[in-house]
Amino acid sequence: MRRIARTLQVVLYYCGPLLIALACALTIPLVLVLIYGEFHRDLLTLEAFLLPSALSLFLGILLQRLFVVEHPTRLQSALICSVGWLGFSAIGALPFMIGIGFA
Questions:
Q1: How far is CA 30 from CA 18, 22, 69, 79, in A?
Q2: How many domains are contained in the chain?
Q3: How does pLDDT run across 10-25, given as a tens digit for each residue?
């Protein structure tokens, strides 16, 4: 049981930098929205990228602060990849879900 908890801690710790990288990637469309002035429709476009970016940054920093660092094993590396894909998919879908009433 202790080994499972340790594995979970390592996996969540390493998902932190992945979420921070996602937050940085989500700011690219946000910058383009500001440059091209596409925020005129009730700021929905701005919110669609700002909220997921802020959520991803918050969760990434939180995971890095809460859990300890340790070199991952092969199993933990596979879990980091799987959980990372799930996290990227969930947070990456938020701009579409927020902006669904846009069209």
A1: 19, 13, 32, 30
A2: 1
A3: 999 999 999 999 999 9
